[in-house]
C-alpha cells in the first residue's frame, strides 16, 4: 500500500486521528473489549514514567492482547470507587512511512476522574479531579480495514496514582 498524493496522506492522517479519538471514547465508556478491536493481534501496551529520584525510566505495566483481555475480564472483580474516567486528547504528530504500511503518532492527554462514591460519598460524589497526564506514543498498521494499533506506550508525567489505576489509561 503506497500513499503518495497529498489527498491520500491527509485522508490517512484523518483516519488515524479518528482511530485515536475513538479509542479515547471507548475507554471513557468502559468499552474495553471494543477498544481492543481497534488493535492488531500483535498489539503491545506499556505504561511508563520517568523517575527523577532514580534518574531512570520505569515500566509500570506491559501486556499483549491476550493479557489485556484477561485483565479486562477481571476488572469487575477489582476493588474500585467506580469513578468515571474521561480523557481529553490532542493528536500532535502523525508520521506515515514511505510505503504507507505503518504510522506513528504522538498524542498528549489528560485523564479526569469523577467520583461516584468514596470515603464520604455524600461529600465526594460527583467531584471531578485530574487523575493523570501524559502522552500516547502509538504505532499503527494501515490496511483496508483502517488503522490498527500495533503498539501504545503511555508515558505518564503523573507518578502518584489513586484508586482506579488498574484501568487502561
Order of helices and strands: HHEEHEEHEE
Largest sheet: 6 strands, mixed
Task: Determine the structural class based on helices, strands and strand pairing.
Answer: alpha+beta
Overall pLDDT, averaged? 87
CATH top level class name: Alpha Beta
Distance between the termini: 31 Å
Question: Roughly what percent helix?
Answer: 10-25%
Number of domains: 1
The CATH topology name reads Nuclear Transport Factor 2, Chain: A
Unreliable runs: none
Provide the spatial order of strands within the biggest beta sheet.
Answer: 2-1-6-5-4-3
Number of strands: 6
Proportion in β-strands: 35-45%
Compute the number of helices: 4
Output the radius of gyration: 17 Å
Shape by Cα distribution: globular
Give the topology, please.
Blueprint lengths: L5 H23 L3 H5 L2 E13 L4 E9 H10 L9 E13 L5 E13 L6 H4 L3 E14 L6 E9 L13
Parallel strand pairs: 1-6
Antiparallel strand pairs: 1-2, 3-4, 4-5, 5-6
Task: Please provide a written account of the structure.
The protein has one domain (6-156): Nuclear Transport Factor 2, Chain: A. It has 169 residues and is α+β, with helices and mostly antiparallel strands. The chain has helices at residues 6-28, 32-36, 65-74, 121-124, and strands spanning 39-51, 56-64, 84-96, 102-114, 128-141, 148-156. It has a six-stranded mixed β-sheet.
Amino acid at each position: 500500500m503506497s500513499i503518495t498524493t497529498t489527498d491520500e496522506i491527509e485522508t490517512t492522517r484523518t483516519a488515524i486521528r479518528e482511530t485515536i479519538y475513538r479509542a479515547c471514547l471507548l475507554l471513557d465508556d468502559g468499552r474495553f473489549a471494543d477498544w481492543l478491536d481497534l488493535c492488531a493481534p500483535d498489539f503491545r501496551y506499556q505504561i511508563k514514567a520517568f523517575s527523577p529520584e532514580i534518574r531512570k525510566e520505569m515500566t509500570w505495566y506491559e501486556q499483549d492482547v491476550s493479557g489485556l483481555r484477561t485483565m479486562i475480564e477481571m476488572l469487575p472483580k477489582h476493588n474500585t470507587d467506580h469513578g468515571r474516567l474521561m480523557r481529553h486528547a490532542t493528536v500532535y504528530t502523525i508520521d506515515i512511512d514511505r510505503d504507507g504500511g505503518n504510522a506513528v503518532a504522538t498524542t498528549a492527554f489528560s485523564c479526569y476522574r469523577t467520583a461516584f462514591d468514596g470515603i464520604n460519598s455524600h461529600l465526594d460524589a460527583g467531584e471531578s479531579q485530574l487523575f493523570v497526564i501524559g502522552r500516547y506514543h502509538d504505532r499503527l498498521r494501515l490496511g483496508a480495514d483502517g488503522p490498527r494499533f500495533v503498539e501504545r506506550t503511555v508515558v505518564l508525567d503523573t507518578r502518584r496514582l489513586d484508586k482506579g489505576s488498574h484501568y487502561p489509561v
